[in-house]
Amino acid sequence: MPKHLPPRRRSARTCAPGAVLLVLLALALASAAPATAAGKPARVPNCTGFPLAKMALLIHVSSLGEPQANPLTKACFYQAPVPGHYSDLLAVSVRATSKRVFLRAQAQEKTAPGVYGIVKIRGATAFDVVHTVSGATLNPCPPGHTLPEFGPPLCNGDPEWSTVAVDAYGTIKPRGPKALVSVTLAGQEEVTLLSYAVSLDRQILSGKIR
Asked: What is the pTM of this model?
C-alpha cells in the first residue's frame, strides 16, 4: 500500500452480482454535481476520447473495452479482462466545478460506509474510499464452481471484491479549469487497485491523459 496512506480497516458488505455496475455508478455519482459557474462551463477533457491503451497500461490490464458514457454525469465506464481474476471495472469522470462541491462530497464520504483515506497528489486535494466485499459469511462454493467474470463473490471460496474511488480537485494542466476528477476502479486486488486509481487521477490532472 502507498506509504502516504494509513493502515486500513476492511469493511465486509454483501451485494447481489447484478448490482455491480450500479455500485460503480453510485460511487461515481457520490461527488457528482453540475458545474456551479454561471453561463458556459469551462472546458474539460472528454473521457470518451481518453486513450484506451495508455489507461490500460496505467491500471495494468491488457486492454480496455470501449467506454460506455453516462450523459447525465458525464462519466465513462470501461471493462477490462484480468486472466485468473475477476475482470476490472473502471469509471472516470472529469467535471469543471467549484471546490465547495468537492468539499461537500468529501464530508459525506467521511461518514459513509467504506474506509476513507487521504491521497497525496501534487497541486490537488484528494481522498479515496475503499469498499471490500468478502464471501466469508456465504455458503461454501459447490464442486465445479468457476470464478464469475465480475464480483462480488457468490460463495465462500471466491476472492474478495474491492471498489476503490479516488476523487481529486485541482487545475487541469496545462492552463485548464479547476476540476473534480473521479476515478473508480473495481476488481480483485485492493492494494494495487488503489495505487492504479491514484496514478490515473494524477495523469488526468497533469494533462497527460486527455
From this structure: 0.83
Burial class (CB in 10 A: 0-12, 13-18, 19+), 202: buried
Residue at 40 is within a domain: no
Per the structure, the count of domains in the chain is: 1
How far is Cα of residue 131 from the mean position of the Cα atoms in its chain? Answer: 11
Establish if 73 belongs to a structural domain: yes
86-111 exposure pattern, b = at least 16 Cβ within 10 A, e = fewer: bbbbbbbbbbbbeeebbeebbeebee
Cell of 171: 487545475
* pLDDT per position as a tens digit, 172-201: 998 889 999 999 999 998 889 999 999 999
Residue 6 lies in a domain: no
User: SS3 of 121, please?
Assistant: strand
- Residue 183, beta-bridge partner list: 92, 166
Chain center to CA of 18: 18
Asked whether residue 210 is domain-assigned, the answer is no
